[in-house]
Amino acid sequence: MRPATAGNAIEEDTLMIHRLRKHGLLSGAGACRRPVTIVLALFVLLSLGLGQAGPARAGSASTLDAYAGKAMRVFGTPGMAAVVIDGGKTTTYAWGVRKLGASARVDAHTIFPIGSNTKAFTAAALAILVDEGKLHWDDRVVDKLPGFRMYDAYASSEMTVTDLLVHRSGLGLGEGDLMMFPTTNRTRAELVHDIRYLKPAHSFRSGYDYDNVLYIVAGQLVEAVSGQRWEDFVQQHVLDPLEMRDTRTSIDARTADQVALHARNTTPVRGVGKQAVLATVMTGDVFAPAGALQVSAADMGRWLQLQLDRGRLDDGKRIFSAAAAKMLWMPQTLIPIEPLPPEVALAQPQFDAYALGFEVQDYRGHKIITHLGGVLGGVSAVVIIPEKHAAFAIMLNSEDAGALFAMREHLLDTLLGLPSPDWIAGYKRMFDDIHASAIAALHTRGAARHSERGPSLPLSGYAGVYSDPWYGNATISLGKSGTLEISLDRSPGMRGTLEHVQYDTFRTHWAMPDVEDAYVTFAIDPDGGIDRMTMKAVSPLADFSWDYQDLRFVPAAKH
Asked: For position 234, what pLDDT does the model report?
């Protein structure tokens, strides 16, 4: 990958970073989200069957310490924790600080947000209800969750419990994330109701597009069937039996031993510039079933041991049945494989599919069960190697996906006994090229701008309330200083000013730190009024959870 000035090159890089993030999810996301995601949701893996597998081995602690230290230095990661299960032994690792500028160190009990790695816990909650006979995987959601509707009547009537979890609904990538990201004044029930207004990008069950909103529906389904909120059900039926005492079900939970979240967000391209503590983080309980858990390395070890033991505890009791365990890892939706650049091509998967809260892939000829997770300011990875009865998790308090991926591939190579390339250098070059391409694209776009052209109307002509069916309202007003101001009414704090760019396009300058700015474009009708308003993220690398492109605002008076 090389710095690009042409549109096709940056589009290819943007598609790759979207797959890496995520959501996300960010999840981000966005879960979430985010990246990364974020989830972020974040995808990369795995490859060509090169090298010969040897006996499983975790390597010495000093060797892993040295590798982790190098990865953190190269990528500027403040803090990181990991847990490795190998040969019947669980080992936790902790490196760096919880917060830049502070002395407190990361330890085995420091909690990190794990973003979309929460999804496997939501799938497990549904598996428990299936074991109890209160639910079946092929039950129709509409029969169990009154009021649930999709945009499409067929999808509404035929969507099953399994469909909620496997990203084949027809919704576009991350569609609807702005309903909750980075925060919302909606309730979870309101979000589930408003999903009916999300217009699908594809037909039902026709292919794969990662989403977060249907995992929120899954969380509401847990409540409808069990009578307990998702948080309480997961606490009682999963966390307590596993003695995961550090774990918190709320992204807003505060403990003495937890990380601050960090990102490079001081330049127009996120990921470039100085690492800083985030002022804006994901908050609220709406997105919890998709990405809100905060977990320590010690607790993550207990969760991974449960997965390796297929739902059975040490005393022989079960959290979920062997049949449920098989279902959770069963491939359901094929994931298209994007080619990776030469620097990391050895991590290219030959097959990739989504199961229930997990992905099933190959890594150099070996089957793995895996998932990535991200929120604003933190990323994580989970990997299970069934043939070796081994597993590991890695958690960072920053958005440095390069460090995460380099650590993941290094641990995979070590546990599988494979010769390992310089993943740190490979991922460093890959992300440097991606960032350079984005910067070049922004420069090219700026050079082609015609700021002297437009706007078509006096600024007061753009003021008004604009409504989008699934998001709600955005308010444009003329401020006392004579500039246009914008507020996304269902996202507390997302308000700012509009700067004219060209023609009838403006760009936001959000008052809330760390929020991706957007272009705001008005279409003028034949009578000289506003016909509609659309938005698009300014940065080519904006996480998919900033799904401005799915918004179709029209003046509220036209409704």
From this structure: 98
> In sequence order, what DSSP letters do the residues of 381-398 get, joined into one string?
EEEEEGGGTEEEEEEESS
How is the beta sheet containing 378-385 ordered, strand by strand? 89-96, 79-86, 390-396, 378-385, 366-375, 359-363, 352-354, 333-334
Q: What is the pLDDT of residue 266?
A: 85
Question: Residue 359's beta-bridge partner residues?
Answer: 354, 370
Overall size of the chain counted in residues: 559
The overall pTM is greater than 0.85: yes
Residue showing tokens 């330049």: 267
Task: Show the domains of the chain with their CATH numbers.
Answer: 7-24+43-435 (3.40.710.10), 459-558 (2.40.128.50)
Instruction: Name the phi and psi angles at 416, rounded to 5.
Output: -90, -5
Contact 230, 289 (CB under 8 A): yes
What is the percent of the chain where pLDDT is above 70?
89
Instruction: Evaluate the omega torsion of the peptide bond into residue 458 and state whether it is cis, within 30 degrees of 0.
Output: no
pLDDT value for 267: 87
Beta carbons of 141 and 163 less than 8 angstroms apart: yes
Decide: 261 and 85 in contact? Cβ < 8 Å. no
SS (H, E, C) 170-184: CCCCCCCHHHCCCCC
Assign 559 a pLDDT band (cuts: 50, 70, 90): low
pLDDT digits (tens, 9 = 90+) for 235-258: 999 999 999 999 999 999 999 999
- Tell me the DSSP string of 2-33: ----SHHHHHHHHHHHHHHS--BBTB--BTTB
Which parts of 230-387 fold into alpha helices (H)? 230-234, 288-291, 297-308, 322-328
Classified as helix, coil or strand, 512 is coil
Place of tokens 């650590």: 407
Helix (H, G, I), strand (E, B) or coil at 84: strand
Residue 134 pLDDT > 80? yes
The contacts of residue 396 (CB under 8 Å, 6+ apart) are: 77, 79, 80, 112, 378, 379, 380, 403, 404
User: What pLDDT is recorded for position 5?
Assistant: 32
Number of helices (H) and strands (E) in the chain: give both, helices first.
14, 20
> Could you tell me what percent of the chain has a pLDDT over 90?
82
For residue 119, report the phi and psi dihedrals to the nearest 5 degrees: -60, -35
> Contacts from 188-194 at CB under 8 Å and sequence distance 24+?
188/216, 188/219, 188/220, 188/285, 188/286, 188/288, 189/220, 191/216, 191/286, 192/145, 192/147, 192/148, 192/216, 192/217, 192/220, 193/147, 193/149, 194/470
Nearest residue to 34 via CA among 97, 113, 125? 113
Q: Is the backbone peptide bond immediately before 446 cis, with ω within 30 degrees of 0?
A: no
